[in-house]
What does this fold into?
Amino acid sequence: MSSILTNTSATTALQTLRNINSELSKTQERISTGYKINSAKDGAAFFSIATTMRSDIKSLETVDSLLGVGQAKVDTAQVGTDEAIETTQKIKDLLVAAKEGSADKTLIQSEITQLQEQLVTNAKASSYNGVNMLYKGATGAGAGVQTITAAVTRDSSNNFGTTSIQIDSASTLLIDGATAANGILSKDRTGTNSNNYSIVGGSNNITLTATTTSAQLSDMIEAVDGALKDMTKSSSTLGSVSNRIESSGDFAKKLKANLEAGVSRLVDTDMEEESAKLAALQVRQQLGVQALSIANSNSQNILSLFR
It folds into this structure.
């Protein structure tokens, strides 16, 4: 039956065309934005996961920057310590030379004084962004424990957290102007002959005079040797921490790349698939328009019955 009041064919064709246009609009949006999940309405579960992962990616970028700052602090301290080891070794060599009977101890002391001043200067200069793990003045606080954020974590309840690397400058301090005994170079060390000596910055720094005895020289050499052992240990500790920071940085970069790939798999558009779908929908749209045009012409055909 044909009716001029209700065109069933046109209604069906119109609904089909609306569905095709809706799908076409979604496909065009996916192609233009690059996302198949662009908001919660596209898939609440996947959108929530992707949002959390993106947050963690941003946090990892921050961690990578913080690790860079932390490594710079540690590496600065290590460079200063290694330089102090070389300078202190020169002092030891001069003390050994002073044990020779005809040595001019006063002249040797002038060289030692220059090296002692260099130790102080280098320790003060070994600072990064205001943090000095080698030198502490007579007033003010020292570097203390340095906490370096190393990674971000999520537990089974999806709670966010961080892990850190810590290094206590108490184990790396070379000169402590407030408490000399806390500094590797500034603390007094008792030798076999019961003489107490510090390298520099202490209450009884190594000082040669024309009357300095062989026993005193032996105790000075012992004090220097003890300081060298402690600085070598400190340098090894700093090196280990630096290596751990570097490894943490490499891991953070790999984890960030993995998370980015995970987000991509969840929300990114498969461009090959969508391009094929777009072509098919465009053909269906053209056919839908044609079908609607044919259905709309039915009312005109009815008029021919009354001619």
Summary: Residues 3 and 299 are 8 Å apart (CA to CA).
